[in-house]
Design a protein that fits this description.
The complex is a heterodimer of chains A (204) and B (80). With 204 residues, chain A is mainly alpha-helical. Chain A has 2 domains: 9-94, Rna Polymerase Sigma Factor, Chain: A, CATH 1.10.1740.10; 109-203, Winged helix-like DNA-binding domain superfamily/Winged helix DNA-binding domain (Arc Repressor Mutant, subunit A, Orthogonal Bundle). Chain A has 9 helices and no strands. By secondary structure, chain B is an all-alpha fold. Chain B has 4 helices and no strands. The chains are: A mainly alpha (204), B mainly alpha (80). At the A-B interface, helix 2, helix 3, helix 5, helix 6 and helix 7 of A face helix 1, helix 3 and helix 4 of B.
């Protein structure tokens, strides 16, 4: 069992059965749990302008296909593939392309001498649990703001891999990018968030 | 011989265990002799823990309760 919050398969089977039976609370639970990550995937593939529409269409396709859901993947992965397929068709129709380099600024090379060694000292951060650090609302705000400013593809890669614990192979299928490109997106997203937290730590 | 810049470039692949053995060992030896890079690695690890706990979300104003009601209605009508 990993540390990501997810429904156990037995609980999930029950939840799916409740959905199939038309239990309204089950609909609320599933929409509130997965709407945000579905929006993230849609924005990464098709962009902000069409994402809401793509996600709404994906929900409708999903609930119509619900009685045929065979449970070969988790409900989350199934929903993400539906939204991803919808977004990919929309991209084909709109002929839209996104660049991996959008919004990326590498760590400045003037931090290193000509042999690749650092000029500056890197000091350790204070030893504290993430929970203790996040008790400070200001840090939470710094992270939220920095996350919102990331390009959509980086936000999606970070959410799927680091927060939702989805396997790399699935992420490549969902976002329609190669594993090496997902790794680039992750590296850039984490580096940017690190820089924001570092700035916050320096100014404290 | 690996340098500080290589650590910056590869730190995430190093943490995720995505490097070939030779490169992994090379970076490990650099980390042994460079306290700045050890601190940098620790900072990136802390960043990951902070992100995992903080779980920043997409900015989305959808009223999920209303959407669920709408979908529930469509599902019910689709069944009949």
């Amino acid at each position: 069992m990993n540390f990501f919050s997810k429904l156990t398969s037995k609980n999930e089977q029950k939840l799916i059965q409740r959905l199939i039976n038309g239990d309204q609370q089950a609909f609320e639970q599933v929409v509130s749990e997965y709407q945000n990550i579905m929006i993230s995937v849609a924005r990464a593939i098709v962009g902000e302008a069409f994402a809401d529409e793509v996600v709404q269409d994906a929900w409708i396709s999903a609930i119509k296909a619900l009685p045929k859901f065979e449970g070969r993947s988790s409900l989350k992965t199934w929903l993400l593939h539906i939204v991803s397929n919808g977004a990919k068709s929309r991209v084909r129709r709109e002929n839209r392309h996104s660049s991996l380099d959008e919004g990326w600024q590498a760590i400045s090379s003037d931090k290193f001498d000509n042999t690749g060694h650092r000029y500056d000292d890197v000091l350790p951060w204070e030893e504290a649990t993430p929970e203790a650090l996040l008790a400070n609302d200001q840090l939470q705000m710094v992270i939220e703001e920095s996350f919102q400013q990331l390009p959509a593809q980086q936000r999606a890669a970070l959410s799927l891999y680091d927060m939702e614990g989805i396997e790399m192979k699935e992420i490549c299928n969902i976002l329609d990018v190669s594993a090496s490109n997902v790794r680039v997106l992750l590296h850039r997203a984490r580096t940017t968030l690190h820089q924001s937290i570092e700035k916050y730590q320096d100014n404290k | 011989m690996y340098q500080c810049k290589d650590i910056v470039d590869e730190v995430n692949n190093y943490i995720d265990g995505e490097l070939p053995l030779g490169k992994r060992v090379g970076l490990f030896f650099h980390l042994l002799i460079c306290s700045c890079c050890r601190n940098y690695l620790q900072q990136i690890r802390s960043t990951l823990s902070i992100i995992t706990v903080s779980k920043p979300k997409e900015d989305d104003n959808t009223d999920t309760k209303l959407l669920a009601e709408k979908l529930h209605g469509i599902y019910k009508s689709h069944q009949h």
